């Protein structure tokens, strides 16, 4: 198993998209960091609606019904506020909600206003039937994001089957027929693998597959 990241903290990526009528090109800056977007996101640990997962399964995606993915949600989280059948208590990602004493005056007024307008109050947005207004579950503890680099990679660094390759850029996925057999690095080096997991962001993943 290999973990790689872009070769520079910030790099310029050029992207070209084609439509039937024109070709449009855009250039944007992309940062590289361990943990990907989990190191920069807003830390709202909100799940999707159960019905959305059930629809994925109904459309031919076995294993994606809410009942199927619930165990994965529970396995990844350590919910510090809610302990029931819908939440995990011993996963690597700590999740909490701001209690009343941590909510400022404007936020309290906003929540009170919603309730006065008839919206129900809820203390757990990740409960399957949750509807209403209340503090959001967050994966930030004492001002620190619970990123995958902190919660997963840090404890796996000593594993004998993990090699971390910093300052490494992947050029493309190598194929044998229609099966991925490894990745080719930008310097020409080939890393062979029985299984390739591509997680290079919304923008970079398609480019590596080109």
Strand content: 15-25%
Helix content: 10-25%
Write down the overall mean pLDDT.
87
Number of contiguous helices: 5
Topology as H/E string? EEEHHEEHEEHEEEEH
Class of secondary structure makeup = alpha/beta
Terminal Cα separation, in Å? 23 Å
Major sheet summary line:
3 strands, antiparallel
Strand order of the largest sheet: 9-10-11
Round the Cα radius of gyration to an integer and report it: 21 Å
Sum up the overall morphology in one term: elongated
Main attributes?
two-stranded parallel sheet, alpha/beta, three-stranded antiparallel beta sheet, 210 residues, elongated, 24% helix
Describe the protein in words.
The model is unreliable at 1-10 (pLDDT under 50). The protein has a 3-stranded antiparallel β-sheet. It has a two-stranded parallel sheet with strand order 1-8. It is of the alpha/beta class and 210 residues long. Helix content is 24%, strand content 24%. The protein contains 5 helices and 11 strands; from the N terminus they run βββααββαββαββββα. The chain has helices at residues 50-58, 66-76, 105-116, 148-156, 201-209; strands at 2-4, 10-18, 23-31, 77-79, 93-95, 140-141, 144-145, 163-165, 170-176, 179-185, 190-192. The two termini are 23 Å apart.
């Amino acid at each position: 198993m290999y973990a790689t990241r872009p070769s520079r903290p910030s790099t310029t990526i050029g992207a070209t998209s084609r439509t039937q009528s024109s070709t449009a090109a855009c250039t944007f800056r992309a940062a590289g960091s361990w943990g990907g977007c989990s190191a920069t996101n807003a830390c709202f640990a909100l799940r999707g609606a159960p019905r959305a997962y059930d629809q994925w399964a109904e459309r031919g995606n076995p294993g994606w019904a809410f009942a199927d993915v619930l165990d994965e949600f529970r396995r990844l989280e350590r919910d510090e506020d809610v302990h029931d059948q819908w939440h995990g208590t011993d996963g690597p990602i700590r999740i909490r909600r701001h209690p009343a004493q941590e909510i400022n005056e404007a936020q309290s007024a906003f929540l009170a206003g919603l309730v006065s307008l008839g919206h129900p109050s809820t203390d757990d947005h990740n409960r399957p039937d949750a509807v209403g207004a209340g503090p959001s579950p967050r994966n930030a503890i004492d001002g620190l994001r619970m990123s995958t680099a902190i919660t997963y990679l840090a404890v796996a660094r000593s594993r004998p089957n993990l090699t971390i390759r910093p300052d490494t850029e992947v050029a493309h996925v190598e194929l044998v027929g229609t099966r991925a057999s490894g990745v080719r690095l930008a310097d020409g080096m080939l890393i062979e693998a029985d299984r390739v997991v591509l997680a290079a962001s919304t923008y970079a993943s398609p480019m590596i597959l080109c």
